């Protein structure tokens, strides 16, 4: 597809939620089912305005809970629709049961998760424990850094989900309030370009059905009856899980392709789609981070570089499937890695720390790892805190060993 | 400012009901013109009467709320209180009652909380005739999240998720609960606080499942959508629509913003509550 020059891309001043709503508007989505929860509400509010204005062909239903929202999306997607919903925190937790079903039935649903801390106590501000909680559900998880990326990634998510090598649902994570309620100038592509990028309306994949000795569309259709999710015990369940495991293996390749293709059209790309790196080649200290905090970290790291300190950053854009080999290749030559987690697995470490730790295990020469848990419940990760963290890591690198592997940034003693 | 200084009174001694409040948390976050404060005052008066009669022990009262504007009540009362998950207050209260049957459980929530996301818990608590007082604040909208379609939203109304007007019909929770052998179902309104206090008072002296719907005013969110942004105008508009009736029939219970909403005591029974049933008559 031809590149769309910047002057042909409409300039919008929107917040992260509105950016997602615009992306969904352009993505020819057939069904949206949602339930209100802060800070996600604006996505659905803007989108229902598009529905009311007749700007989209979408069926919108205001259901009675998030459990119903995801259930409706599962039904819609099984019937052949391109389906979308959005939620946050406890809403996502209530969806949990259906998250597994969406992934196991290989339904390419796209879900915007506006990251927010889980209760109790009740808190509406950003952390990543909601998203980390769904890491084992079989979904692809992408984390965005800014409002522009929220728009770009939501459109890309439909392409990734519906790719026949993948056929898995995608969760697009954007930080609550930091992105969802923050205005930025973004560029959006013309409708027809997005339509062409997505290949028009959703295409239904075909599957081979042994007893029919034929390929049939994987969709609910009375003319060609199929059952979705019937009883599957020790006879075939394991094999079906293997299909999911195999499909996950294809995801990094597809995410990279989609990122590259998007770059060719829009002029924007996010690292290789999986990881985004800055100053990592010769770095002694590398920070890994997810979501909007990456912006602050990059800013601080540039300052350290101006002072001649060898510090680098890796932003993990794709958390599931986790890019183990790719990240290990980037990190292996550094002295110390500071793994930032806006969440924690209680009784263990931050969730991305566990992944990175196992990524590096097989390497003979490997860096030391420190886990920084920060920003729970929306606590600000200020440049001063990031500076403090990097200074600690630089002195760890100099000293050659780390004393405390789990550190908490910006918490009262 | 001078006026405020002059009228300043000692914290907690301004009003006879202050003893039931956590004064340090007042003022509430409720908007000017909201019916929740009126409803809470009526409830506290009813509790006070029952306490003075010796029917209720304030140390055994537990407020259970879910999420939403109404659910903030548990922040402000001086009783034991639990601010639980959205929709799960009735289930939480059921567990608390079973663990300690001596407690008087008062569940408060909005219509979205009680009848929307928590609707299943409500009907099964009613089916058991569970010993709870459930108070549902009907403001016709999801207010705390900014004005989305709720289970009680009048048809045709513009909300942030139905900008073309709602095509869904509102839910009549009174009629729903009439399907069960429950002990008390009433509908009151924050515009008739004395009457509301009577319903609360009566329900607090009863056993089994008791449900009171409070038709309330939300000028900030519902009022804005329906065109009566000013609290007094919304109050007057609701007053025009609300009709008081002694012993109304279930058939008259529809929640119809246009044709009027009838308030009164719809169901009064005295079946044994769930606790008595499982204790075999022993209390």
Distance between the termini of chain B: 55 Å
Mean pLDDT of chain A: 96
Separate helix tally of chain B: 11
CATH C-level class of chain B? Alpha Beta
The radius of gyration computed from the alpha-carbon positions of chain A, rounded to a whole number of angstroms, is 21 Å
Explained architecture:
The complex is a heterodimer of chains A (413) and B (283). Chain A has 413 residues and is α/β, with parallel strands linked by helices. Chain A folds into two domains: 214 residues, Rossmann fold (3-Layer(aba) Sandwich); 134 residues, Rossmann fold. In chain A, 39% of the residues lie in helices and 20% in strands. In chain A, helix 4 links the parallel strand 4 and strand 5. In chain A, helix 1 packs parallel to helix 6 and helix 6 packs across helix 8. The termini of chain A are far apart. In chain A, 53% of the residues are buried. The mean pLDDT of chain B is 93. Chain B has an eight-stranded mixed beta sheet, with helices on both faces. Chain B has a single domain, classed as Thiamin diphosphate (ThDP)-binding fold, Pyr/PP domains (Rossmann fold). In chain B, helix 3 links the parallel strand 1 and strand 2. In chain B, helix 2 crosses helix 8. The N and C termini of chain B lie far apart (55 Å). With 283 residues, chain B is an alpha/beta fold. The interface between A and B is medium-sized, with 22 and 21 residues.
């Amino acid at each position: 597809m031809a590149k769309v020059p910047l002057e042909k891309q409409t300039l919008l001043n929107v917040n992260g939620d509105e950016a997602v709503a615009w992306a969904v508007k352009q993505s020819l989505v057939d069904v949206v089912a949602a339930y209100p929860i802060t800070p996600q509400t604006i996505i659905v509010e803007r989108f229902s305005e598009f529905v009311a204005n007749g700007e989209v062909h979408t069926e919108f239903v205001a259901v009675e809970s998030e459990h119903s929202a995801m259930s409706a999306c599962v039904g819609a997607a099984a019937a052949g629709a391109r389906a979308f919903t959005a939620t946050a925190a406890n809403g996502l937790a209530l969806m949990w049961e259906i998250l597994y079903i969406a992934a196991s039935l290989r339904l390419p649903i796209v879900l915007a998760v506006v990251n927010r801390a889980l209760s109790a106590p009740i808190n509406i501000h950003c952390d990543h424990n909601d998203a980390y909680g769904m890491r084992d559900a079989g979904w692809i998880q992408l984390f965005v850094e800014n409002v522009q990326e929220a728009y770009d990634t939501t459109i890309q998510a439909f392409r990734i989900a519906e790719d026949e090598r993948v056929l898995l649902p995608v969760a697009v994570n954007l930080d609550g309030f930091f992105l969802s309620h923050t205005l930025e100038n973004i560029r959006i592509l013309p409708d027809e370009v997005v339509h062409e990028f997505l290949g028009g309306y959703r295409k239904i994949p075909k599957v081979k059905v042994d007893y029919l000795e034929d390929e049939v569309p994987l969709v609910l259709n009375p003319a060609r009856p199929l059952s979705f999710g019937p009883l599957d015990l020790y006879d075939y369940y394991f094999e079906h899980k293997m299909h999911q495991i195999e499909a996950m293996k294809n995801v990094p390749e597809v995410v990279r392709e989609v990122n590259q293709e998007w770059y060719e059209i829009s002029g924007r790309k996010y690292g290789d789609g999986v990881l985004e790196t800055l100053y990592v080649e010769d770095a002694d200290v590398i920070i890994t981070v997810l979501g909007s905090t990456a912006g602050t970290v990059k800013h601080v790291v540039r300052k350290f570089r101006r002072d001649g300190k060898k510090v680098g950053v890796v932003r993990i854009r794709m958390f599931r499937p986790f890019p183990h080999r790719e990240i290990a290749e980037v990190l292996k030559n550094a002295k110390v890695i500071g793994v930032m987690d806006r969440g924690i697995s209680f009784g263990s470490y931050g969730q991305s720390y566990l992944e990175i730790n196992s990524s590096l295990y097989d390497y003979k020469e490997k860096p030391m790892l420190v886990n920084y848990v920060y920003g729970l419940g929306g606590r600000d990760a200020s440049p001063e805190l990031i500076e403090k963290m990097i200074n600690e890591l630089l002195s760890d690198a100099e000293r050659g060993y780390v004393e405390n592997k789990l550190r908490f940034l910006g918490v009262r003693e | 400012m001078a006026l405020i200084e002059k009228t300043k009174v000692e914290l907690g001694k301004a009003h006879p009901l202050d003893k039931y409040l956590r004064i340090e948390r007042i003022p509430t976050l409720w908007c000017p013109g909201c019916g929740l404060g009126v409803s809470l005052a009526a409830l506290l008066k009813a509790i006070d009467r029952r306490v003075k009669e010796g029917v209720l022990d304030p140390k055994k009262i537990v407020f259970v709320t879910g999420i939403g504007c109404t659910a903030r009540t548990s922040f402000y009362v001086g009783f034991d209180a639990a601010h639980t998950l959205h929709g799960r207050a009735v289930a939480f209260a059921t567990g608390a009652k079973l663990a300690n049957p001596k407690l008087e459980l008062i569940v408060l929530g909005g219509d979205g909380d009680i009848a929307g996301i928590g609707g299943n818990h409500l009907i099964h608590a009613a089916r058991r005739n569970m010993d709870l007082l459930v108070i549902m604040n009907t403001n016709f909208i999801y207010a705390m999240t900014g004005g989305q379609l709720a289970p009680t939203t009048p048809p045709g109304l513009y909300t942030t998720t139905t900008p073309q007007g709602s095509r869904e019909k509102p839910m009549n929770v009174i009629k729903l609960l009439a399907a069960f052998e429950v002990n008390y179902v009433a509908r009151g309104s924050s515009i008739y606080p004395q009457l509301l206090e009577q319903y609360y008072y009566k329900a607090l002296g009863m056993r089994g499942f008791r449900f009171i719907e409070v038709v309330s005013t939300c000028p900030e969110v519902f009022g804005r959508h329906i065109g009566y942004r000013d609290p007094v105008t919304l109050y007057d508009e609701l007053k025009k629509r609300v009709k008081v009736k002694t012993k109304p029939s279930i058939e008259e219970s529809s929640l119809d913003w246009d044709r009027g909403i009838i308030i009164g005591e719809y169901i009064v029974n005295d079946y044994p509550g769930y606790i008595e049933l499982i204790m075999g008559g022993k209390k």
